[in-house]
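ok so i was messing around last nite and threw this chain in just to see what happens. nothing serious, just curious
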Amino acid sequence: MREVTKDEIEKLVKASSSEHRCVSFYFPTVRGGKEAQQNPLRLRNLYRQAHSQLQEVGLKEEEAKKSLKPVASLIDDQDFWLHPTDGAAVFLAPDVFHTIKLPYSVSEILTVSDSFHLKPLLPMLEENVGFYVLALSQNAVQLYQADRYAIEEIPLENVPKSMEEALRFDQYEPSRQMHSGAPGSDGSLTGVRHGQGPGGEDEKKNLRQFFHQVDRGLNAELTNKNLPLLVAAVDYYLPIFRDVSAYPRVFDTVIPGNPEHKTVDELRDEGWQRVEKHFDKELASIEETVKDGMATGKGSNDLESVVPAAYHGRVATCFVALGIQQWGRYDEEEGHVTFVDREEPGVKDLLDSVAVHTWLHRGHVYPVKPENVPGGGKVAALYRY
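result:
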């Protein structure tokens, strides 16, 4: 899946222009149908606004046109518009031209300033938690990497493809333990003898051997063991897998049912529901910590105070409101914040400034809906000191 990386954002953060020639374009796009024909037109409208604003900050008409030439070419680039997502961002500066297709919709925003406007990208870094889905049945083993927006399969080289393959050399003989038959709805074989049904001692023993081999192969292949792993399987598989697994972050909830009967999008959606609940609990705890900090003078929701604190690396954690802007200027030498009522050349979204500078100083940024900002303001910050 295409992800925005921290390296990409860091390069965009470090880009600057003293002539206020960093131009940021954000616009929603439509994935298909006749309405998708409007996608390049949205960028064309923003292009016209950018042409006008660049002249307002001092460029001559032909200079503005020359500066915007990469954007003009993008408008007519049929390959770029061939596979639209839900939103797009374009960044242009004297030495920068960068495009990103976003898996979520964004409002139309155009800024012309001495730096790029980046707050709408932050959900892809902070909110968009990645996770693995391990789809387990006796007949198939598949691994996926997913997030709330996308999912893709990870090829497995050293993992058995089925229980029969895993136990072929461990005297696994289904005909002696079970009548042959079609796979059941839970992915197990039907027609069980001697009372050894699903969850019976013989099957548990075989499953432990099977899952041990699966887990050993996974741990050898996966380099990123910080992502949570969700098992998609019938319920009673999960405790057996967790018992034998050495993977450090196996979730204690299962995506229930035979995964062979689910689409990859269903696995992604059901996985994200469980991951989101887990991180919502963590986020609620962080919110309380920020509230306590504001109540004891170790934090603030006063934007005029938070802006300089973020620039100087004092903000350890901050919540910023998505979908709204607070335009203004910050004079670093004087430490003075000025608010303005509307977007115009040379001003910044100060919420964006707080988020970006907190992130640059290795703080934690949580972009949330305005109503979810602790304290009821547009920003809430917990200070390091």
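not much to say yet. The chain has three domains: 1-117, 131-278, 297-385.
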